[in-house]
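Morning. Coffee machine broken again, so started the prediction first thing and wrote up yesterday's gels while waiting. Chain of 270 residues, entered below exactly as on the submission form.
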Amino acid sequence: HTVLCLPGLTRNSRDFTRLAETLASNGHRVISVDYRGRGRSEHDTDWRNYSPFIEALDITDLVAREHEAAVHIVGTSRGGLIAMILAALRPTMMLSVTMNDIGPRIEANGLARIVGYVGRIPAPIDWADAARTVADINGRDFPNVSAAEWDVLARQWFNDSHGRPVAGYDPALARALTASNSVIPEMWPQFRALARFPLLVVRGDNSDLLSAETVAKMCRLHPDARSIEVPGEGHAPLLRDDYSQNAITKFLRDVDRKLGVAWAHRARCH
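Came back before lunch.
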């Protein structure tokens, strides 16, 4: 089955390159998204459209355009919030959900940290400066990332314009974020809409956005959930390591196997 990868607030489809290669080698078709105003997608002329609900509608249009009946969703941060909205809005398009470092409750200190940097990072002068910038912002929570890897991540998070790094998202995204007063209500009712889909929760053990307590509650409330914690990573796990990739691959394989059995049983019944 097809896997649809939904990135975080300021991120883009390049975040899933390594994971997409692994999933494709295991027989999945992978679609990775640049939301409006991120990556190579055009900026919206109205910053108010940078909302999870509007982006969820964009995703339903994309899945229809790609002629996909239903997909597995891997959602990092913002992508996981969109998955919860889709579970209520268009449940028939979903097979399973992997939520990468996001849940119904978002920790205030982690949200404040994000609000503090969105749209406020000075433009790097070159790619070496871009690598130093992402390392300075994220190095404390990702202590095991090497200098070479920070360079790779910089090229994921910044766009390339004629060989130089530029912002990978519309700076007006900051207006949409601050307009919400930096308060996101807990989404337990929306989370309950995920109950019909197998769920994998991925948490970075240094995460300041998703607490271990919230993960535990998610697994208690959901009838078919499993979780993993990625060591040495914060918000959000990079999904570049063997541990998280193997866990996601196994989860999708298990779900596809169950779906195959269910469809075979339905065929016999008819």
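The chain has a mean pLDDT of 93. Going to sketch it on the whiteboard this afternoon.
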